[in-house]
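ok trying again, last paste got cut off:
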Amino acid sequence: FIETVRQEANRMDVHLLVTTSRRTSKAFESLLEKTCKNDPRCKLLVLANRMNIEGVVAGIVGLSKVVLVTGESISMVSEAASVADRVIVFLSTERKKNSKIEKTLLELSRNECVLLTEQNGLRDTIQKAFDVKETRPKLNDAKRIEEALRRIV
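nice, full thing came through this time. structure:
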């Protein structure tokens, strides 16, 4: 996963802004640090278990043309899909099939809010995300909630 993303960043001449969550394993954080810390393409590496900088996720999402998130956290996916122009959700092969999370991700994909990929399709999905020119629909739950409240009140 990490190596594919780094190779594509090199090939497309783009920068990487990387962060983990507090739930990221120490082993994966160490791997990220080893592979990204001295990578000239990686302009930001925040390991949340070591330094959790307030607002870093919003900053990364706001600055990025393409945001790649893992599919374990619906809140992270939702935040990205609410703001970013292109969102890729990486699905782990160990994920729970037919779970609420997977059903939600499939619905977001059907509504063209995110692009879903597994490891074998990651390279093509990254390319597709950069090639797309039209604006994708963004999540706007605040507007839906406001409309629902107006109907009730």
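cool. The mean pLDDT is 88. Strands lie at 16-19, 42-46, 66-70, 86-90, 115-117.
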